[in-house]
Every structure is written in C-alpha cells, then in structure tokens.
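Just wondering, can you check both lines?
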Amino acid sequence: MADAAAALLSSPGPGERTALLADRLSPRRGCLGAVWLPAGGPPAATGSSLSPTLLREVENGTTQSSAGWYVGPARQDEAGRLYSPAGLRLDGGLLAVKISLASVHRVAAEYEKSFGALTSLHAPGGRPQVLTKGNPGSLSSAPGGVGSSKGLAGKDAIHTQSAVDGTDWHVRGGQGRPAPRVVHRDGEWIVHFGRVLGTPELEDLQRASGGRVVNRDGRGGYVFRFARPSDMNRAAPLFRAKGARYIERHGVARINRTPDDPLYRPYQWNMPMIDAENAWRTTTGAPGIVVAVVDTGVDRGHPDLQGQLLPGANLLDPTRPPDDDNGHGTHVAGVIAALSNNGEGVASLDWHGRVLPVKVLDQDGAGSAFDVARGIIWATDHGARVINLSLGQTEDCQYLHDAIRYAAGRGVLVVAAMGNEGTDTPEYPAAYPEVLAVTAVDPGGVFAPFSSYGAHAGVAAPGVSIASTYAGGQYAALSGTSMASPHVAGLAALIWARSPNLTADQVRNIIQQTAVDGGPPGRDPQYGYGVINVGAAVRSVQTGGGWRSIFPWWP
C-alpha cells in the first residue's frame, strides 16, 4: 500500500491513477477494491466499491493514528468474501483498501486443523479476529488488544505467525504438547506365555492364529508376525486360551539421537516429519560447510546461535554488522544451524554447520533486487557452499539472474522460497532454472494453501508453524515458504558434510530423487519432486565422494 500511495502521489492524471491502482492493488495481490482520495482533484478507484460508511471508518481510523495507518476488523461483503478495511493517510491524500483475508483465513484454518488450537488473527491497530473453534468458516470480532507473535509463551503453548505476503496480519494460537511418537514393527506382537511351548503345540498355534514365530527367548516369550491386522484379532483369544500372560505390540528401540533442546519435542514437528532424526544418526554436519543466509541479517547475540555464525556482511550499511532488525533472517538461520542438543531452545538440521549472514533487507523485510544480487555474489566470494534466499519478487531481473548464474557457475547450490501468494505467478529468484525452488507443506505433508506453485517447483518442505530462533534472543513459530527453504538448505549442508566432493548438481539430484512423492505421480507444480526426506538423502551418500542410488533404476 505504501508503494502504491507513493506512486499515486506522482501520477499526473486520473487515468494514470486508475491504471496504477488496478495494477498495484489487484485481486491477485490480495486486494478486493481500492479508492484514492487526493487532497485535490478527482478520486480514482478500482475493483469492488467502498461504501461511504466504510470510507468514513477508514478516514477516521487513519486520522486517529499517529502513523496514518488503519486496519479494521474483518467482515464479509455482499458476495460473502472475507475482507478487512485498511487505509493509509499521506499529505497528498488518502488510500482506502478492502484487503482480502481469504489467504490469511486459509492459513488460520490450517493451523486449527493441524493443532486443534483456538486461532486468532491479529492486525496492527485492529482487534483480534477469532477463528471460532469448530466453525472454521467464520470469523468474529474479539475483545483485547493487538497480540504479539514474538516468543514462545510458557511450556504448553506456542505463539504462531503467518507469513502471508501483502498483509500485516499474523496468526496466533495455542498449541498443546503432542504425544510422544511411538514406532512399532509392522505386524509384530510380543506374546509371553510364562512357559516354553512344545514344538507340536507351537506349530498348531501358528496354523490356527495365522501368525509366524520370528523370535523367542527360551523362557516363554515369543514374537509373532502377522500379515494382516485382522489376523491378530483372531489370534488373541487363542493365545489367552494357551495361558498368555500378556500380548503387546513389538516396539522399535533406537539409538537416542533425539536432541535435548526443550522446544524440540513440544513444537518441532517438522524435524521428525522429514526423518531428520535418522539423518542425525549418520551425520550432524560439519563446520566447514557454510550456508549463506541472504536476508534481514541475524541476531548475533542470540544464545542459541553462539559459535554458529561467521562475521558476514551488511550490504545496506557496510559500516555496521549484519544485525537483524526484523527477525526473519534469524528465524531462517535457526532452522539451518541453531545450536542443537545443548539443552536450550530449538534444534536445527545442521548441528555443526556455519551460517554466513548477509544483510540485504531492511527492518521491514524489504530490499532491492540489486542489493540481493550483490549479496549473492558476496556470499559466493566468501566461501558459501549453499545460499538460502527466503525472498522474492514477481518481476524478472537480469542483474539478479546474472548473480544466480555467477553462484551456480562456482559450484554453489542456491535454494529459494517459491513465495506465499497462493498462485502460480512466478517469483524470482525461485523461478530461475539454476535455483532449487521450495514450496511449503503442513504437518500432514499436505500442500500449504498460502504457498505459491508452478512448473519450476523443485521440492517441498515444512512451512507451517515452524519454531526457530528470533530477533532479540527470542523464539517464534512462523509460517511461509521462507521457512520451508532453509530446511532444504540445511539438508544440502548435511549431504556435503557427508561427502564434500559432491558437485552442486549432484546434491540437488540427491535431494530431489530421495524426496517422497506428495501429489500426482512424478513431478508436479505443488510438491515438485516431493517432500524432502533428510534420512533417505543422507543415507544415499557414500562417505568421501559420490552417492549411491536408493532406487535400482536410477544411476
């Protein structure tokens, strides 16, 4: 809105202003309608009309705000579309907008479906809009002030935040502690009789039950394996008739490679979902593999990032360090390489990796394509093996593409977020062929409704309510393809830690070919090659060089 208002001020005539409104504030960008009321001259409008009552509300709201901004409570229009009135007052006029909340509402509904939490939407200067539990299709106004999404509240609840482009709304909700994940051997049950069964008796029991003894202890304990779950229901009475003391599922015991970070088990659903724990039994990373986070900077004082950060660079102000005045870059860095198994905060994918922070975005998370391109080149020249770009724009830029080619030509794997528009409109740099583009999925592995998609999608990764480090020494759970991308960057670092001589193309192939197909068979616009599988990817790598296929038909 700020960019559109600034452009409107410099537009010479009503026709140009109307065209500018239609371009900058279109439905594709999440706007149902907009009106520009200049201090002098005729107004300009686009899309759905704003009623006089709504215009007065916006005008009063922006007048009362010291910053000139207003975001009102959510409501529905005559077509049943969910929207929120918003406005920005400048010296030269007033911009009033009907912001579509459809994409934000979908994110909120996804949170409730995933976590069973009472979820609320919070706008700056507005009252929270509560997504009523059990009625995900409606929003109602709720009392109270604007909520903060920064930090994890207590031990049994987490503050969650959406990352929907084009809005300043965020989603907040309470998530309870999930039950511990239990793994069993398929179709196997332990049966303890308290006595050793004779051979004829045991053979008769196997025939009658449909089970097969696959192990025994010589003291009356047996492991029976069944081809079908229904066989077990038929077998239980037979076992009890033979005097079985107990019958139980055959659990799987594993080396404990689950990190002791206190936020891991309650909140980091994303790591077990992509099989990271199995990968950590093979490798937890190597300090020599550097991942550049070209972003808003990183909180260099965060306790969970100590020793994990290289000096980096601030390309917006070379006289200052790359400190994070937004929070986004710190969150991305924590997904990749937060201190892990240290009894504090969160766990990351690459426990022993190093993050190279390159600040190219300001405190609002905005920056120029030129600065992003310079950041890519700088990171390439300063030792990055992987560059994470949780950013994008819808306009192609040759200079940016040249920087991507520069990095790829020097053996760097560039990973980028697809965007959060929920459309197939390409965003750059993710759409460049040299880039591994990442979409987002939820805890069920389902494509996230806010995630952009397209034929250039490479892989999918967790991107809903991802807990990680945040600016100011805090922790937060954010959502967006910005959160999905660093999962892939961290996986690339683990693969290189296992085999440093691999090329970037080989690492990319490993990530894609070990992914779990998530949509129609084969590559598709939503999941790319599938949801990343960190365990399978790391296991496929041969120590020292090369990689072996886990598929017999893949070379």
Notes: The first strand starts at residue 31 and ends at 38. The two ends are 51 Å apart (CA to CA).
